[in-house]
Design brief:
The chain has one domain (5-254): 3-Layer(aba) Sandwich (Arginase, Chain A), CATH 3.40.800.20. It has 260 residues and is mainly alpha-helical. The chain has ten helices and five strands. Helix 2 (51-61) packs across helix 10 and helix 6 crosses helix 7. The protein has helices at 5-10, 51-61, 78-81, 87-92, 96-103, 113-141, 167-178, 197-203, 218-224, 241-254, and strands spanning 28-29, 143-146, 186-190, 209-213, 229-232. The strands form two sheets. A three-stranded parallel β-sheet has the order 1-2-5, sandwiched between helices. A two-stranded parallel ribbon has the order 3-4. The N and C termini lie far apart (44 Å).
């Protein structure tokens, strides 16, 4: 006899990226480990690789959040990543030249891989853990924001465009696995000017996936339809983007579309 979806979920291993948060905490996820930097190598790329910390600083200055009210994620482990990624792809990241291609930062190819893992890929694994956690918190609170993540150019077996891990696919697959009794369909709304070819490729043959670009309004999801929503901020890396993203979050707060 086939097991029910609830029985199947009970057999799953404990998700170490999921955690409960206190009532006083916002479902806003961030870690200082998100930020990338090593001997000013980040200056060789036009992307602002410390924008995530800048966003949080702007929100602190506006007195919207404090250190105690944000949620710290765990780093995604190899086992976590293997839910979606192939072993071959993850192994390829042990070569600095491959990471340089994925992130489109050629000088990274000259660095020893242990440094690349520590100062470049580890921050991206923390952001990936944050995205996976954001899915759970959105179900519980109705919304969540991962201040990092949104690596929409990465698929299960290929990275690119500064996207080394398929955090969006991982977020979705974890929800399908652990909340199969509640989640049947997930909508990806991609507002980046570049097509999100990573998650698109992962779900192109999955009938549960629905992708619509350029339509996201918190009021439509939360106020009118009570649909949980996850927001990830990656995609804009110019030096002015952190301020723009922070202002967008503050605007949602001012209009009472998000609250603790």
């Amino acid at each position: 006899m086939a097991s029910s979806s609830n029985d199947d979920s009970l057999k799953l291993p404990k998700n170490t990226l999921y955690k409960d948060i206190s009532p006083h905490q916002w479902p806003i996820i961030y870690s200082s480990n998100y930020n990338i930097g090593f001997l000013y190598m980040e200056k060789l790329h036009p992307f602002d690789s410390s924008k995530w910390g800048s966003i949080i600083n702007f929100l602190r200055q506006a007195k919207m959040i404090t250190n105690d009210t944000i949620v710290n994620p765990n780093e995604a482990t190899t086992d976590d990543l293997l839910l979606v990624h192939t072993k071959r792809y993850l192994s390829s990241l042990n070569w600095s030249i491959q990471v340089a291609r994925v992130l489109e930062v050629p000088p990274i190819a000259l660095l020893p891989n242990f440094i690349v893992q520590w100062r470049v890929l580890k921050p991206l694994r923390y952001q990936t853990g944050g995205s996976i956690l954001a899915g759970k918190l959105a179900l519980e609170r109705g919304w969540s924001i991962n201040v990092g993540g949104g690596f929409h150019h990465c698929s299960s077996d290929r990275g690119g465009g500064f996207c080394a891990y398929a955090d969006l696919t991982l977020l979705i697959m974890n929800l399908f696995n652990y909340y199969s009794d509640r989640i049947k369909k997930i909508l990806i709304v991609d507002l980046d000017a570049h097509q999100g070819n990573g998650h698109e490729g992962d779900f192109i043959n999955d009938e549960r996936g629905v992708i619509i670009r350029d339509e996201i309004v918190f009021s439509k999801c939360i106020r009118e339809r009570n649909i949980p929503i996850v927001m990830c901020t990656s995609g804009g890396y110019q030096r002015t983007n952190a301020r723009v993203i922070a202002d967008s979050i503050l605007n949602l707060f001012t209009k009472k579309l998000i609250s603790c």
